[in-house]
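Q: Hi! New to this. If I give you a protein sequence and the SMILES for pyridoxal-5'-phosphate, can you show me the bound structure?
A: Yes, paste them in.
Q: Okay, here:
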Amino acid sequence: MSTAYEATLEYAQSEDQTDVLYPFRERFYFPQHNGKDVHYFCGNSLGLQPKAVSYLMEKELQDWAKFGVEGHFQARHPWFSYHHLFSERLAKIVGAKKDEVVAMNTLTVNLHLLMLSFYRPEGGRYKILMEAGAFPSDQYAVETQVRMYGYEPEDAIIEITPKHGQHLIEEEDIIKAIDDAGESLAVVMIGGVNYYTGQLFDLKQITQAAHRVGAYAGYDLAHAVGNVPLQLHDWSVDFACWCSYKYLNSGPGGVGGAYVHEHHGDNPKMFRLAGWWGNDEKSRFKMRKGFVPQKGAGGWQMSNAPVFNMVAHDASLDIYEKAGMEALREKSEALTGYMEYLLNQITHLPFTIITPKDAARRGCQLSLLFDNRGREVFDKLTENGVIADWREPNVIRIAPVPLYNTFEDCYRFYEILTGIK
Ligand SMILES: *Cc1c(COP(=O)(O)O)cnc(C)c1O
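A: Thanks. Here is the predicted structure of the protein with pyridoxal-5'-phosphate bound:
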């Protein structure tokens, strides 16, 4: 793929022809608009449905019909160990060891469960540092975590804001705030990619800074997982969680994921709220008293796997496995770079791109901040068969997703935007 971009349909189509990931588009269903595929740029909010889901779901339903309770051991993918199906593939996506990850629950639930392990305020160490403007669910989670221990959010939560008049947060401001908080800091909990601006934070550097002052570092990877390269283990990240319905295409409310570094995962003394599914698997059905956590992130599981809610995850991770994160990232940088190039040709509409210009500081999403007319432009895009995403008060988010979006999609978007007078 070349980077000498051109704002022509011929150029876009020729890029698609040499794109090795192009055929993956065929594995997804696209919503229709006037009998044609929509221009779907909303994979950051809800990924498209892999076509394999209905077949795999039917298989699971058949196993239930055929085996009843025996399906726990006799199903094609025995339900007893169903969650193991995902570990290896997830581990590759987030850069972890197989036992450091587990598919379970949903995102905010996992965030709370992990905070219960990693946020154990004691003496003067009780503060949590996060980015200002974090996704509301994360704000509510952290706010109620500190209240649970009797602290006031205004005192216990340190929020890092962009410098005056800017939209992005400088890493050096985060590092400085961590150093300033010093021994009062218990946990750093940041969204790996900010949902609003699309900014990717330097998680390695932030983790190191947190550890220097004796705090834990954990991340909400909702907008990072399956979107940007992650090396959670090597960066010594303590914990992380994510959802699977955004870039991971696993359907609305799809099963979430969690990562716990092996230092903690293999430590049975690490506090957690327990359930039978996190117990040592060999003794799970002995029904004995006394919780014995299994090693790894799996030791944070509570309930048995929601099998039907995991089928789409299986289908989607299979696609990720075949495409490979490296190839996806390479295409992603080229594709988002192309979209940015096209948007920069547009001068008649009042917007600026607030997402970082540097590809190393963003994933595939671009956020367009409008002075005015934002909602009107968004509605016209929708009328023209574009599915993008509107965020109050005045941002249109678009995500060219490397698994199923094409250079032609980007060009068509540009063409439609050009036509909005
Ligand atoms: C999408 C998203 C959520 C949603 O949480 P659920 O528990 O899955 O409903 C939470 N936090 C962030 C940062 C998100 O992007």
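A: Residues 9-49+325-418 form a domain with the Aspartate Aminotransferase, domain 1 fold (CATH 3.90.1150.10). Let me know if you'd like me to explain how to read the tokens.
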